[in-house]
Amino acid sequence: MPIDRYRKDALPQDSDPSGALSRNLDRVERLGRSLELIPFLDGELIRDIAYTGTAVSKRHGLKRKWTGYIPTKMSAAVSVTATEANNPEATKDSVIAFTASGNATFDVWVF
User: How much is the pTM?
Assistant: First the structure.
């Protein structure tokens, strides 16, 4: 999160004589740092995963190992399961595999 670009030391000198702007910038920075600690927010939406009976591997783009997932949109009432992909060409940090209890197309939020 690019909070640092709003640092109060980047303000022109004498532009905040009451200190109100600096205090507000400090609050925004604390809020931004607390949001960075919520893993769910640091995720990627994988769209249109078509399951037809065989596990579907997808790159998630997180640049780290995934920690969880939430199916967000489904074409049918199915149960979606995710596992580490068994793909020798990709690292486990970059790929996630999905299965479902029946044929469906779904979107998944991966975090």
Answer: 0.66
